[in-house]
């Protein structure tokens, strides 16, 4: 590789592993990366692909047992591998800085923001306390924090997630590093905040002339913000290319498959989602040849025995593959989804009427304050049998509380849920328990939702036992049938949840939800803990089972593309209220509410030519003090005086499409609804 | 904050009242006449009855308790006929020496446990960690009197380098004036708590080490020592504060044994002797004071946590 063309950081043949008690994980295997001044290199891969380990290797911060086994890391020609710790410390936070995923836990809870931002300045630049404070103030202003002088004395818990990530950025950039490693910097943030933070990082990179390594699993983020991309799979780089070239003319089958798996708003709903069969290899015992071979449609015998080297196919485009492909897959080539049979319209299977959930402020007992919060504030909708209702909104908008009320895990403060003709809040004891059969729930993190000390067999048997259904033999037969349905072998019955991958666990959770043959399944973020390739497998499975059993779904997600693919009707929630309801097309193609439009604009599309769109500024206000009138007005580009005074009532825009806004993006229909 | 403290004080008063009621009923209900206990087995039945009548011990327990409460409200803990001294004076005379002993042991225990726990967390699963874990478990599972006996056997009787008996001086500051004589009692009492504290500190430090902010601090370029002292220590000590507040009863109980074994004139020895003498007023008074200290200790610990953890102040 040529030095001199703005090259700041060069990683060559980097291999890193983690020693365990009796074995070793081969986490990073021969990685080459090149970072140039003022350039963003995207490092994309699924969980366990070694992308974070690569970042930590560069920082010299591998976890205990971790070590760099081979290769070199050169910062402006200076070798970092084998550098004594004392000298490495002078580089960390000074010449190379790193931002981590979760801003909620990345700041010390008992130190002020000012202290934490000033710390590297005092450490590396030898500044006095006063100078460091001045610089910290500058940095907070630079990352777009309003009233930075007041924020210096704040503690992390007083700040929202987006603000904390800005503080993290201020901290990382305070010594003007040459290289910034951003490891999933926005994964824990809401989509609207994600767009703000990524733009900030991009602007600061340009202003300070840094090189940025953007580590992410999200092809959409890569498409929009990276100049070049390296794709990682099972510890190694499989392909590197300039962003546009990678998205339009990728050569590696994995890159092709990864992009095809990434759901888009334009995804045809009739077709199944593209998915990669199988799971990544076990890095305790990696295969000898190409590590993707076992999941690759183009694999031959050579792939299984001989690992392809990473070589340049043309300037700036490197590839490790024996049988390269050419360009992206046609999304229409996936097989059609089984159609959902039309059930006789006997009215809605689920009817949510003016549901309210109010929590008292017990947490504030220390100060003797009583504050209450309306997590859900007057939500109504109905779902027809065999259909899917999607619920979208940012974290804290009340989606999950609503879900728990629908399945009667949480009693509403007022309003009612009617499921299959029975009002849930009027049912008690045995009748409610019998009714629960028909209402099941799927949770976000399947590892949390499965008892770690129960075998899969016991987990799947439990619903039958709780309802007193069948003999042991009948239960076992039913469990086997369930496993067939979700595509798991019968041998899993004797195993424990931790022995499975995320996708397999979510299949088990789905099997458990299906056990009692329910009519309604409420899925709260069913795939957000899963990798892209596995995500599409689970979504396809959910659709297939819906068609087969005539299931009714309520799918809750912060991911608008998932809801677009799954739902027939969609509700958009903001601060406990449903601001817009309509068919999937109404919401995604003809949104009336500015919030819906803003959410859609914030989605990073996996397309480098998608261009810029209007973004929503700031963050959701505290639900303890919701704004007067329209709750969205504090972030709305169209807000006027009337929005603060008068709460907008839902108005119809199309049949079945209503939105609550005084100044909608489209003209409402003439008839004005009352109440 | 003020309202919170006032409310906690009010509930504390209820707890102390409950403790006084239960101990009063137990002491008076379970054993014989106080007159018999004070006058001895030789005294005639008439003399005992006369004594009981004179001091109101012949009235119903409820009336006696109400009278006791009335005295309590005036700050009068009762009178020890055995020792011919008011309970107030007895407790006041001995409290200082006990406080010095328990305080020294507490300071020493914290001083050892905090760095030990952090060290073990940082070096977890190393030979040193496992060795220290084994040692702390031995200390943890050993009864106080056994530890005291062992220390006496080794250092006083065996090596002969330290006295087997604590200082008999009536000064409150014997720890400073006669440190050699106080070393074994303090060490014994430290042994009671240090194992528990260090185990707790180890797990608290492990929890904090796994937090992302520790990795962030290292990514800033801080040395391990700076990461530990500037970032980890405060967060890892917060849970320990609560534990210390809760371990006051343990310390008082340990005190009782240590003072008896080493014959150290403090509250513990007073209580122990009063127990043998069935000296009810002293027993009652001591229990009451101990319960007040336990309740206040917990309150104090909660307040310290509230003050040092910004998250609890204005959530």
Automatic annotation (TrEMBL), chain B:
<keyword id="KW-0812">Transmembrane</keyword>
<feature type="transmembrane region" description="Helical">
    <location>
        <begin position="182"/>
        <end position="200"/>
    </location>
</feature>
<feature type="transmembrane region" description="Helical">
    <location>
        <begin position="282"/>
        <end position="307"/>
    </location>
</feature>
<keyword id="KW-1003">Cell membrane</keyword>
<dbReference type="Pfam" id="PF00528">
    <property type="entry name" value="BPD_transp_1"/>
</dbReference>
<feature type="transmembrane region" description="Helical">
    <location>
        <begin position="236"/>
        <end position="262"/>
    </location>
</feature>
<dbReference type="InterPro" id="IPR000515">
    <property type="entry name" value="MetI-like"/>
</dbReference>
<dbReference type="GO" id="GO:0055085">
    <property type="term" value="P:transmembrane transport"/>
</dbReference>
<keyword id="KW-0472">Membrane</keyword>
<feature type="transmembrane region" description="Helical">
    <location>
        <begin position="131"/>
        <end position="162"/>
    </location>
</feature>
<dbReference type="Pfam" id="PF19300">
    <property type="entry name" value="BPD_transp_1_N"/>
</dbReference>
<dbReference type="GO" id="GO:0005886">
    <property type="term" value="C:plasma membrane"/>
</dbReference>
<comment type="similarity">
    <text>Belongs to the binding-protein-dependent transport system permease family.</text>
</comment>
<keyword id="KW-1133">Transmembrane helix</keyword>
<dbReference type="InterPro" id="IPR045621">
    <property type="entry name" value="BPD_transp_1_N"/>
</dbReference>
<feature type="domain" description="ABC transmembrane type-1">
    <location>
        <begin position="95"/>
        <end position="305"/>
    </location>
</feature>
<protein>
    <submittedName>
        <fullName>ABC transporter permease</fullName>
    </submittedName>
</protein>
<feature type="transmembrane region" description="Helical">
    <location>
        <begin position="9"/>
        <end position="30"/>
    </location>
</feature>
<feature type="transmembrane region" description="Helical">
    <location>
        <begin position="99"/>
        <end position="119"/>
    </location>
</feature>
<keyword id="KW-0813">Transport</keyword>
<dbReference type="InterPro" id="IPR035906">
    <property type="entry name" value="MetI-like_sf"/>
</dbReference>
């Amino acid at each position: 590789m040529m030095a001199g063309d703005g090259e700041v950081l060069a990683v060559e043949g980097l291999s890193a592993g983690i020693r365990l008690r009796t074995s070793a994980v081969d986490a990073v295997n021969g990685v080459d990366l090149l970072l140039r001044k003022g350039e963003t290199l995207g490092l994309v891969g699924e969980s366990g692909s070694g992308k974070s380990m690569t970042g930590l290797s560069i920082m010299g911060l591998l976890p205990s047992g971790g070590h760099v086994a081979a290769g070199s890391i050169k910062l402006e020609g200076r070798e970092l591998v084998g550098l004594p710790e004392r000298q490495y410390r002078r580089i960390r936070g000074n010449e190379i800085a790193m931002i981590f995923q979760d801003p909620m836990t990345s700041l010390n809870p008992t130190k002020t923001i000012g202290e934490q931002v000033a710390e590297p300045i005092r450490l590396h630049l030898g500044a006095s306390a006063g100078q460091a404070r001045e610089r910290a103030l500058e940095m907070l202003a630079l990352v777009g924090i309003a009233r930075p002088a007041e924020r210096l004395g704040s503690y992390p818990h007083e700040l929202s997630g987006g603000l904390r990530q800005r503080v993290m950025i201020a901290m990382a950039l305070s010594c003007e590093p040459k290289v910034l490693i951003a490891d999933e910097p926005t994964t824990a943030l809401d989509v609207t905040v994600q767009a703000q933070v990524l733009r900030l990082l991009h602007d600061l990179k340009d202003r300070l002339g840094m090189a940025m390594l953007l580590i992410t699993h999200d092809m959409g983020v890569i498409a929009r913000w990276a100049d070049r991309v390296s794709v990682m799979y099972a510890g190694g780089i499989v392909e590197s290319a300039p962003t546009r070239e990678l998205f339009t003319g990728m050569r590696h089958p994995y890159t092709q498959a990864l992009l095809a798996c990434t759901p888009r708003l334009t995804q045809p709903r009739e077709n199944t989602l593209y998915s990669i069969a199988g799971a990544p290899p076990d890095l305790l015992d990696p295969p000898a040849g190409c590590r993707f071979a076992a999941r690759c449609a183009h694999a031959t015998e050579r792939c299984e025995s001989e690992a392809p080297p990473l070589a340049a196919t043309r300037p700036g485009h490197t590839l490790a593959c024996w049988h390269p492909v050419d360009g992206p897959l046609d999304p229409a080539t996936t097989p059609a989804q089984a159609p959902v049979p039309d059930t006789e319209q006997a009215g809605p299977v689920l009817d949510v009427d003016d549901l309210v959930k109010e929590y008292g402020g017990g947490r504030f007992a220390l100060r003797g304050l009583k504050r209450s919060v309306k997590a859900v504030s007057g939500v109504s909708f109905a779902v027809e049998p065999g259909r899917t209702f999607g619920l979208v909104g940012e974290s804290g908008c009340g989606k999950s509380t609503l879900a728990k009320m629908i399945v009667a895990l949480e009693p509403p403060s007022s309003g009612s849920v009617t499921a299959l003709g029975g009002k849930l809040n009027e049912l008690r004891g045995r009748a409610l328990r019998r009714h629960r059969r028909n209402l099941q729930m799927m949770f976000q993190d399947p590892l949390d939702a499965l008892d770690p000390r129960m075998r899969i067999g016991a987990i799947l048997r439990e619903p039958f036992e709780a309802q007193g259904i069948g003999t042991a033999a009948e239960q076992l037969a039913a469990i086997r049938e369930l496993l067939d349905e979700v595509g798991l072998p019968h041998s899993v019955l004797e195993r424990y949840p931790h022995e499975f991958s995320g996708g397999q666990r979510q299949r088990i959770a789905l099997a458990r939800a299906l056990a009692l043959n329910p009519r309604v399944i409420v899925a709260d973020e069913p795939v957000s803990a899963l990798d892209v390739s596995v995500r599409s497998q689970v979504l396809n499975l959910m659709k297939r089972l819906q068609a087969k059993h005539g299931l009714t779904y309520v799918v809750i997600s912060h991911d608008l593309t998932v809801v677009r693919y799954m739902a027939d009707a969609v509700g958009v929630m903001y601060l406990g209220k449903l601001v817009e309801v309509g068919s999937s097309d109404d919401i995604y193609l003809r949104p009336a509410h500015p919030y819906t439009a803003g959410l859609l604009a914030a989605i990073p599309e996996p397309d480098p030519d998608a261009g810029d769109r209007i973004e929503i500024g700031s963050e959701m206000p505290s639900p303890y003090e919701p704004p007067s009138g329209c709750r969205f007005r504090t972030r709305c580009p169209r807000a006027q005086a009337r929005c603060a005074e008068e709460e907008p009532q839902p108005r119809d825009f199309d049949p079945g499409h209503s939105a609550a806004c005084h100044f909608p993006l489209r003209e409402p229909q003439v008839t004005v609804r009352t109440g | 904050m003020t309202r919170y403290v006032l409310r906690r004080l009010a509930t504390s008063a209820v707890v102390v009242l409950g403790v006084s009621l239960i101990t009063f009923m137990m002491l008076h209900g379970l054993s014989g006449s106080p007159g018999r206990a004070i006058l001895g087995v030789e005294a005639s039945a008439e003399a005992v009855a006369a004594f009981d009548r004179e001091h109101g011990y012949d009235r119903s327990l409820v009336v006696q308790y109400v009278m006791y409460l009335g005295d309590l409200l005036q700050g009068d803990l009762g009178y020890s006929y055995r020792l011919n001294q008011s309970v107030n004076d007895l407790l006041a005379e001995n409290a200082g020496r006990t406080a010095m002993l328990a305080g020294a042991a507490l300071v020493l225990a914290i001083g050892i446990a905090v760095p030990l726990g952090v060290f073990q967390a940082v070096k977890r699963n190393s030979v040193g960690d496992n060795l220290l874990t084994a040692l702390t478990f031995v200390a943890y599972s050993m009864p106080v009197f056994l530890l005291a006996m062992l220390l006496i056997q080794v250092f006083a009787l065996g090596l002969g380098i330290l006295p087997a008996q604590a200082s008999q001086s009536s000064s409150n500051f014997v720890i400073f004036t006669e440190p050699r004589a106080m070393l074994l009692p303090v060490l014994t009492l430290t042994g009671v708590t240090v194992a528990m504290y260090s185990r707790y500190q180890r797990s608290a430090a492990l929890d904090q080490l796994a937090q992302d902010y520790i990795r962030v601090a290292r990514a800033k370029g801080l040395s391990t020592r700076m990461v530990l002292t500037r970032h980890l220590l405060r967060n890892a000590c917060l849970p320990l504060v609560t534990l210390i507040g809760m371990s006051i009863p343990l310390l008082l109980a340990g005190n009782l044994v240590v003072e008896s074994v080493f014959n150290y004139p403090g509250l513990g020895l007073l209580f122990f002797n009063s127990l043998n003498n069935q000296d009810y007023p002293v027993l009652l008074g001591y229990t009451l004071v101990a319960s007040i200290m336990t309740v206040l200790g917990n309150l104090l610990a909660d307040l310290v946590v509230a003050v040092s953890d910004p998250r609890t102040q204005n959530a």
